[in-house]
């Protein structure tokens, strides 16, 4: 059982009557349940695939969590088939278009059609064009994330007790600036 007390402002009233400056309200919580990790609902969590007809491999009007964009989805299906036949080695796919036209949704659907072994790292243009970090560094970080590369640093750690510090004064190599 958890008890939380917080002060009230003078003159505030509660059901029992007026409250004075030193009083507070106690809240009793009988049971605190542990939080369970839940799946995040993202902007494209409804996308389950390209929504293609299994026989003709053409896009259905409303399937796989996608509506419309039948020509783009059919073309993406051709791309998925080429990747599965291993005919896309060393090549890439560029999805271009105005904002809100479904580029990320189709890319996510392609990744889901290809399976779990194909990495999918969505990237937003505002991340790339940030003034804080170089563009190449952002792209390299996403490539590392996609291929699962982890950069490890080797560090030496000295363990013990500092018994004495001796300051040493040297001349400034910059000439006093």
TrEMBL record:
Which UniProt keyword terms apply here? ATP-binding, Helicase, Hydrolase, Nucleotide-binding, Nucleus, Transcription, Transcription regulation
- Keyword set includes Nucleus: yes
Catalysis: reaction(s) = ATP + H2O = ADP + phosphate + H(+)
Asked whether the UniProt record includes Transcription regulation among its keywords, one would answer yes
Q: Which domain of life is it from?
A: Eukaryota
Residue ranges constituting the TIP49 P-loop domain according to the UniProt record: 40-175
UniProt-listed Enzyme Commission number(s): 3.6.4.12
Secretion signal, residue range per the UniProt entry:
none
GO terms of molecular function: ATP binding; ATP hydrolysis activity; DNA helicase activity
Pfam family for this entry, one: TIP49
The similarity comment for this entry is: Belongs to the RuvB family.
Q: What is this protein called?
A: RuvB-like helicase
Q: Which organism is it from?
A: Teladorsagia circumcincta (Brown stomach worm)
The taxonomy runs:
Eukaryota, Metazoa, Ecdysozoa, Nematoda, Chromadorea
């Amino acid at each position: 059982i958890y008890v939380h007390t917080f002060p009230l402002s003078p003159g505030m009233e509660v059901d029992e009557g007026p409250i004075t400056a030193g009083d507070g309200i106690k809240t009793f919580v009988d049971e605190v349940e542990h939080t369970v990790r839940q799946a995040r609902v993202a902007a494209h969590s409804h996308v389950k695939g390209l929504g293609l007809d299994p026989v003709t491999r053409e896009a259905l009007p409303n399937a796989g969590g996608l509506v419309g964009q039948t020509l783009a989805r059919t073309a993406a299906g051709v791309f998925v088939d080429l990747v599965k036949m291993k005919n896309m080695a060393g090549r890439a796919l560029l999805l271009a278009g105005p904002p809100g036209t479904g580029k990320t949704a189709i890319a996510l659907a392609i990744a889901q059609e290809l399976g779990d072994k194909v990495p999918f790292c969505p990237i937003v243009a505002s991340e790339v064009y940030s003034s804080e970090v170089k563009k190449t560094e952002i792209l390299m970080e996403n490539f590392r994330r996609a291929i699962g590369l982890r950069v490890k640093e080797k560090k030496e750690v000295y363990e013990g007790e500092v018994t004495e510090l001796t300051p040493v004064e040297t001349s400034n190599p910059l000439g006093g600036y």
